[in-house]
Design brief:
This protein folds into 3 domains: 192 residues, 3-Layer(aba) Sandwich (Beta-lactamase), CATH 3.40.710.10; 235 residues, D-tyrosyl-trna(Tyr) Deacylase, Chain: A, CATH 3.50.80.20; 80 residues, no CATH class. It has 517 residues and is of the alpha+beta class.
Amino acid sequence: MLGAVLGCLVTAACARDEPPRATQAPSTLTEQIDGVISQPRFAGADWGISVISLDSGRTVYSHRADQLFQPASTAKLFTAAVTLSELGPDYRIPTRVLAASEIRNGRLNGPLVLYGMGDPTLGVDPSTAQWADQLAGQLAAQGLRRVHGDLVADATYFASPMMGTGWEAIDLQSWFAVPATALSVRENQVDVTLTPASSAGAAASVSLEPSDAMPSVVSEVVTSAAHSRSDINLYRAPGDSVLYAFGNMAAKSPAQTYKLAVPDPARFAGTLLQQALARHGIELDGKVVSVHWPRRDTVLDAQPRTLAEVLSPPVSEILDRGLKRSQNLYLQNLLLLSGVKAQADAAQQNGDTGFITSERWGIRAMQQLLEHMGIAPAASVIEEGTGLSRRNLATPNAMARLLAFLATQPYAAALQEALPLAGVDGTLQWRMRNTPAQNNLRAKTGSMSYVHCLAGYVTTGDGERLAFAIMLNNYDPPPGAPSATRDIDAIAVLLASLRNRITVPPSAPSVATHPAN
């Protein structure tokens, strides 16, 4: 079930690996990298590498750099680029409470609408940790005491399905593929904890945190004899709200907690606001209902007034948290937000633009940006914002040129700060420690089964700034071999260790290349 989890996580095994070290390296960078990637265990794998100097523009190293590879989560760099281009680093995403009628004598006749506009950090950022009470408090301050109608949790700001194009159905119950929706809360995750009974034969208990996040749980997990092998299985069918738990847990074994996706984040957000309204003395006569695309909320047609609002942190901070942790919800929502903006701009210029999804509008804006950079359409085939889709493709050259372009933009420093720092934080916290890359290399990781990538920036030993993309596809380390991350890190450390900006003999060309096989 969890086999497709993005390898952006640093596993305990990776943390135990000794830092990669270059031993008795040949004289040139080309020979050093070739020595890594030409090992017999890579005979069935595909390496693609592009390294560009940000100072001179020269190609420092290239291997199959114009071949398409699956990028995994390094695709988030493309999403970051279009987000910063369309929204800017300072944009803050609102979450609003709307109503079509006025509050009269403490009463609102008609529905109250909780309108999400794409904030993926609602309920987890310090500024919005108490978002429901903030909104309820603003309503109470206006004298509202009774709502004669429903509370509508509206997620229709995104005209898109709640999963990205190419996401695999089996992943949709998992924490890393939560619904990408305009009304998200607490990162759309729920902790499911199973605890064995004190004696064999009794049912294990199931608890949820938050308790209202999963509408229905059917558990058939029984307690087995002490010291027996536990076998816990969780399944929720795509599109269904019922979680099924079955199997057994050994008596006296510790409780087990699993992070799963909330099936309807908008409804859960509405329930949280309903509870906050009650805490602030506001009665709701109706019920909580959620509305998703392609349904429409007719209240919006009446041009409702905004009664209350909370704002997200700036986009630059959302990107920082999303890239450091490789948080898929954050990046998919930012792509969808970019799409909403691109569609609004197109409609303003051209009138009726017909229908494509918010996701496709975001991808269209991304493609236009890449063409502006001079990156050919065939060099990147990105179809969603996270890297979860195996139909995403990009060349190492496209990735490195994207990074080189971003390094010239006004928001370059903010973007680079958002990337994990080797040996220090994010998904690189435990990698490349005690090497020249530590506290130097900033890069986005990307891993899925048989896919291992790293793309970002590094400064060489003599101060040259490089943009690089290292992509390894179709590789499963054989028994006894180092992890794929160690192989990639070995190349990254070579870049950080590089001295002498011309790394080939004076009589040879200044561009070190390796021909594609």
